[in-house]
Target: Transcriptional regulator, TetR family
Amino acid sequence: MVRVGLTAERLTRAGAELADEVGFDEVTVSALARRFDVKVASLYSHVKGSQDLRTRIALFALAEMADRVADALAGRSGKDALAAFADAYRDYARQHPGRYAAAQLRLDPETAASSAGVRHAQMTRALLRGYDLPEPEQTHAVRMLGSVFHGYISLESGGGFAHTAVDPQVSWSWMVDSLDAMLRARAAS
Amino acid sequence: MVRVGLTAERLTRAGAELADEVGFDEVTVSALARRFDVKVASLYSHVKGSQDLRTRIALFALAEMADRVADALAGRSGKDALAAFADAYRDYARQHPGRYAAAQLRLDPETAASSAGVRHAQMTRALLRGYDLPEPEQTHAVRMLGSVFHGYISLESGGGFAHTAVDPQVSWSWMVDSLDAMLRARAAS
DNA sequence: CCCATTTGCCTAAAGCCATTAGGTATGAAC
DNA sequence: GTTCATACCTAATGGCTTTAGGCAAATGGG
Model:
């Protein structure tokens, strides 16, 4: 009985890697046990169960993604910041599709409130400060940016753009440009 | 042995209803058999299996949603059409969350090509004709509209907007307004 | 109208996943 | 070196999926 040295953290990291390889939906307690060459029941000493494992992976991905976005945003402002912000999310999703999917997991309000999710919201607001929108509109804009970027990434990764010849990268840039123009127009009004 | 009269169509419809009640992820061959008070194996005469069932529900939802959107679009143009288009999707997702989720199921390219998915794309293009965009941009705009609306609906249904007091309906209207303005600006340029 | 064939639904069984209960051995601390 | 916590194990239950093979109800040709 060789001790492998499992911990909740190692399981979470391995789960994140597994998610990137086979998809978040296929991340299962059994598959993870197999990967560590350990019996399934052994994992239950470290995580409460399947749901707990998935939640941990989601929180890990949210935090990692927030770090990336924060890095991308550092020292930038205006349209430059907007593009860096957008690319940080899209790049993360392309490099780590499973983790990105994990980050979309519905968390219960309490867990969500203590997650890196709030950093994402804060960074979006910080970004928008550059556009000087009055308060109700700032919230609208936060929601809109979250929607476009998340929606695009989700459709792109789902192969939704595969049937057209137009380069998704070009559409992405066009979209970021358009959003910048739109936000500047709204600020002026 | 009373015959219940199962067919692939009845199973699909019942599956769609079940999805709305318990979520698309919980739609299972077993649950559906239970609902018809029939043994699980009996369903396998009508659908190939779990994946087939889910695909059928997805195709059903895509078609139903396309019908709704087509109705909403009839006789409208410009911003009016844009708002009706957007609302048709959002209303469908709110009335039928499980079906809306089903409609996001990744289909293999062949199935997708013969699904109502193409009608969705066609209607989006038709809608955009009102804005008179040159060709490469039209594709960008199709993608952008799909992204914003899908993204918003997905975040809203996931409770992503629950922590702020601002009415999601107001943000939605603001977003539609902003998109309309943006598209008109792009047409002019 | 009846018999044959189709076919709708069944039982049985195997495989995989999740989860819990309770056992054994290992590594650390005294 | 003995003790004690704990890391990992075996065993067992229950759910979902899928396949194979059987019986009976519907259907239709003679």
About this structure: The mean pLDDT of chain B is 96. Residues 23 and 49 of chain B are 18 Å apart (CA to CA).
